[in-house]
Structures are given as structure tokens and as C-alpha cells.
Amino acid sequence: MSKLKLLGRHNAFNVRKVLWLLEELGLDVEQEDWGRDFRPTAVPEFLALNPLGTVPVLLDGDVVVRESHVILRYLASRQRAFTLYPEALAARARVEQWMDWVAYEMTQPMRGAYLGGELGLKPWDNAWFVAQGRADWGARMAVLDAELARGGPFLAGADFTLADVPAGFVVHRWYAMPGVTRTPLPALEAYYARLSERPGYLRWIRNGLV
């Protein structure tokens, strides 16, 4: 197989998810820092690979893949990692529905609570938007807690899967943000501790960064 290259700053939310999975899969990758505070993505060289100018971008020989969750699926399929990304349609759908839940349901809360509330970035630093983002994030963590209490020990059932990669990141960020008020969620807290037993999670997610 060809050498993998990952374009995107190592401290970016979506890049860190991919780096975690690469370690889970035991894959070597050449990673280049692109994006905020590093090499700008609004240059012809990068836009030729991703016209959206966003990170991450995965290069696998002549194959160019963008969007972090697509990259996660691509890598698991490439390695035939069927425990992470099942072949059976029903099991695969259970994994994908949680990946898409993070993509759709967590975007606005993260903009308000993290980009606005923690980083103070405009236009997300509006006080109402920040407060709403924190409230919505808390409500969604309660949804995860209830799901984990019903099943588990991982989000899609007995095994660690791709469902746990995006979800595991937003759980970490929830517990790492200093500006939020958290209510006890025992199943979620146990899940966070369980993920923290994984070396890749400690290296790329629970690594001192929010």
C-alpha cells in the first residue's frame, strides 16, 4: 500500500480524530500542519486538493479524501477493520448513525460553547449563543449517558468502533472545558474513563488540549 499523508494542524478537532484512528489501526502517516496558525489553506496548492480549504485531507497515493468522518470510514475500510466498521448493514448503520449524530447535532453546541465560550472567537462569542451552546451540549451528553446506561460498554455495543471516535472527542471536550457546569452522568463518566485506557486516546485526544 502507498504511504499515507495527512494534511491538517495536529491540534485541530477533526485532525485529532483521524490521528487517533491511525494509531488504533497501527498505521504510519506523514502529517503536515495546515490551517489556523500554520500553513494557510487558502492557497492554490491546498485548494487543488480540497476546494473547501478545510482540514483534514488524507492523501493515499493518488487518492485524495476530505471530511474527517469520510476519512475515518475510508481508513477502516482500507484496512478491513471490520470490528471498527462492520460489514453487516445493521451493525454498520448503528455505528454510522452515531458518527452522523456528532456531525449534525454537535456542530452548533461546539460553536457556541467552545469557539465562542472558550476561545472567544467571533461571531460565536455572543453571550446568548455561548449559553445556548453550553446548555445544548449538556443535553446531548445526557443522551449519550442514557444510551450507554442501556447498552455499552461502548456506544455501538460491546466493541470499540468508529462510533466512539467522534463521540469520544466531544465527551473529552465536554469534561475538559473549564467554563461549563456539569451534572453527574455516571455512565458517561465511566465511558470517558474507559476510552482513557486507550493509548491513542491519551496521545491525541486527552492530551492536555481541549
Topology (elements, then pairings):
Layout: E1 4-7, H1 13-25, E2 29-32, H2 44-47, E3 57-60, E4 63-66, H3 68-78, H4 89-105, H5 107-118, H6 127-150, H7 164-176, H8 186-195, H9 199-204
Describe, in plain words, how this protein is organized in 3D.
The chain has 210 residues and is α+β, with helices and mostly antiparallel strands. The chain has two domains: 4-78, Glutaredoxin; 89-204, Glutathione S-transferase Yfyf (Class Pi), Chain A, domain 2 (Up-down Bundle), CATH 1.20.1050.10. The chain has nine helices and four strands; from the N terminus they run E-H-E-H-E-E-H-H-H-H-H-H-H. The chain has helices at 13-25, 44-47, 68-78, 89-105, 107-118, 127-150, 164-176, 186-195, 199-204; strands at 4-7, 29-32, 57-60, 63-66. Strand 3 and strand 4 form a beta hairpin. It is globular and about 45 Å long.
